[in-house]
């Protein structure tokens, strides 16, 4: 059920009857204040302008044509022509009954499944995943889960950085280590970070090492077997590390989703040739460059986009052009979504413009780069370890579980050690994820252990706890998930909870459209809060003698529990039966 869509459709039909073009915007929104009812239809004002009539009069005509008597208990015209709609308890109850007997919880069938390629996580290899990789990984995964629940065909693409110049330096260093006779597994690859630092130091300080490294990059990229063998060692080790993190994070990425930069190698030269032949790329100081006047600066100087370096090397940019072609043509993507930090915004604009000019992207493939802000420490600076190093993701997650363990122990006394461990894992990981997912993607946010592990406010522990409370009510009442009874909404708290329950689909649509899981986070928090208000005002177990009332309220509780579980699952956050 999508109430907003339903009202929009009805309004559009009415507009047509009034002689307006079919695409006239009905401007239906959820009401922002209770005195405006549940939904507002705001399209009368601009429609009146088009028809050159009085907006209030048009609103009246519209209300008559809409014939909302079945679903609304009140339809009011306010101000210059706003139409405020308050939904009828009986109608809401009917829709809830449908949702209660539906595995999709009332979310309608996807009328037009799309193929959506989602590029997320994409760590640069030969380094362990650090906090900088968290946002792309979990925001991307939440969007992927939501699209799949909706019924789109999702193709995950983990565009791992496995082909950059850093590999020349790593191979050169590894070669020297091997010559010294060190054992590969134990010394070289056990601590990738450390190994990387050593190589980087030599690259910066040691005469001749940088040249040797550059040599190795060229060799590697032109298929030299020895270099490729050493390179593969780094890749395998890093991928193993990433998989451990994905598993801890409850992220759905697998090896099958890895389509790394190196995979595009054979496509690069032909694409560059094609761009040159088409006159899109031109030579400039030995390099091949696309000059984009669309992105010109204030002085009108076009934005340069280098696709091949002097000396023939390819770049991150070239690989992304190839990725456009592969995804749009081979994978037949209707939409490509890419999650990276905001600093790459210009890069992806350049990629899209160039790819469209060159026909690498089909005209009907949407290309959405979804940027996100930086995770900051409590001092307001980018999040670092106490000694100023980058925070390894695996270590951060371990700390989360340890801290959650303490919080869980404080809260409850009747749990076994095994239960505590399990709950602490879910709460700790859930807290880190929810804290991140609940922020507006595009802004920076401050990472705070205390805030994310609190049982008050919009946090994972609050929602997980709310879920256990509902489940405990259902256990005490001895009803199963499949329990069915008529729903009767009497109290306003019941009605408000009902409206919220029926807004699940609207929320998911918005999450998918804007790639913003924070909207689902807010929805779940509001749902849980409305449930708590309802539960205080409308006793359930104490009313067991008044069976009809109590049964109806149990139905609301079951729906709330199912939605919390489903919604958190779309965020990749686990729930538990008790805590
Ligand atoms: N590896 C890149 C980074 O760590 C992200 C890659 C994103 N995807 C892409 N198609 N460029 O910043």
TrEMBL record:
Protein's cellular compartments: Cytoplasm
CDD domains noted in UniProt: Anticodon_Ia_Arg, ArgRS_core
Species this protein is from: Alishewanella jeotgali KCTC 22429
NCBIfam families membership: argS
Designated name of the protein: Arginine--tRNA ligase
EC class: ligase
PANTHER family: ARGININE--TRNA LIGASE, CYTOPLASMIC, ARGINYL-TRNA SYNTHETASE
Key words of the record: Aminoacyl-tRNA synthetase, ATP-binding, Cytoplasm, Ligase, Nucleotide-binding, Protein biosynthesis
């Amino acid at each position: 059920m999508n109430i907003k869509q339903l009202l929009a459709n009805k309004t559009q039909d009415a507009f047509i009857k009034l002689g307006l073009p079919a695409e006239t915007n009905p401007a239906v929104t959820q009401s922002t204040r209770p005195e405006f009812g549940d939904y507002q239809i705001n399209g009368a004002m601009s429609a009146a302008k088009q028809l050159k009539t009085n907006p209030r009069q048009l609103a009246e005509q519209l209300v008559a044509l809409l014939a909302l008597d079945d679903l609304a208990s009140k339809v009011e015209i306010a101000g210059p022509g706003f139409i405020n709609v308050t939904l009828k308890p009986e109608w809401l109850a009917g829709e809830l009954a449908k949702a209660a007997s539906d595995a999709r919880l009332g979310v309608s069938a996807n009328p037009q499944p799309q193929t959506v390629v989602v590029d997320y996580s994409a760590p640069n290899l030969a380094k362990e995943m650090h906090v900088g990789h968290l946002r792309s990984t979990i925001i991307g995964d939440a969007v992927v889960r939501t699209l799949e629940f909706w019924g789109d065909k999702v193709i995950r693409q983990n565009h791992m950085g496995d082909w950059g110049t850093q590999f020349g330096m790593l191979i050169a260093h590894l070669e020297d280590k091997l010559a010294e006779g060190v054992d590969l597994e134990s010394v070289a690859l056990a601590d990738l970070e450390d190994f990387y630092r050593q190589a980087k130091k030599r690259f910066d300080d040691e005469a001749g090492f940088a040249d040797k490294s550059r040599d190795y990059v060229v060799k590697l990229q032109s298929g030299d077997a020895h270099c490729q063998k050493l390179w593969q060692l780094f890749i395998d080790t890093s991928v193993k590390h990433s998989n451990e993190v994905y598993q801890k994070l409850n992220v759905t990425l697998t090896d099958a989703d890895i389509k790394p930069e190196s995979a595009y190698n054979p496509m690069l030269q032909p694409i560059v040739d094609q761009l040159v032949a088409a006159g899109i790329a031109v030579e400039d100081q030995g390099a091949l460059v696309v000059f984009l006047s669309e992105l010109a600066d204030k002085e009108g100087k076009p934005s340069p986009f280098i696709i091949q370096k002097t000396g023939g090397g390819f770049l991150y940019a070239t690989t992304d052009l190839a990725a456009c072609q592969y995804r749009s043509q081979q994978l037949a993507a209707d939409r490509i979504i890419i999650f990276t930090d905001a600093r790459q915004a210009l890069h992806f604009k350049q990629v899209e413009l160039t790819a469209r000019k060159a026909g690498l992207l089909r005209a009907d493939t949407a290309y959405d780069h979804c940027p996100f802000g930086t995770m900051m420490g409590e001092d307001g600076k980018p999040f670092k370890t106490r000694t100023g190093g980058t925070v390894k993701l695996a270590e951060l997650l371990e700390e989360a579980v340890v801290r959650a363990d303490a919080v869980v122990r404080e809260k409850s006394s009747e749990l076994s050690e095994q239960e505590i461990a399990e709950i602490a894992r879910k709460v700790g990981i859930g807290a880190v994820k929810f804290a991140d997912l609940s922020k507006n993607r595009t802004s920076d946010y401050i990472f705070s252990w205390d805030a994310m592990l609190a049982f008050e406010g919009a946090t994972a522990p609050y929602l997980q706890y709310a879920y256990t409370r509902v489940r405990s009510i259902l256990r005490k009442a001895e009803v199963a998930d499949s329990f069915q009874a008529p729903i009767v909404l009497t109290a306003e708290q019941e009605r408000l909870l009902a409206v919220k329950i029926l807004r699940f689909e609207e929320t998911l649509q918005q999450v998918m459209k804007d790639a913003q899981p924070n909207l689902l986070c807010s929805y779940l928090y509001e749902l849980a809060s409305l449930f708590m208000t309802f539960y205080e005002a409308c006793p359930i177990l104490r009313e067991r003698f008044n069976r009809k009332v109590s049964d109806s309220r149990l139905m609301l509780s079951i729906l709330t529990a199912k939605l919390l579980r489903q919604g958190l699952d779309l965020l990749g956050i686990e729930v538990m039966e008790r805590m």
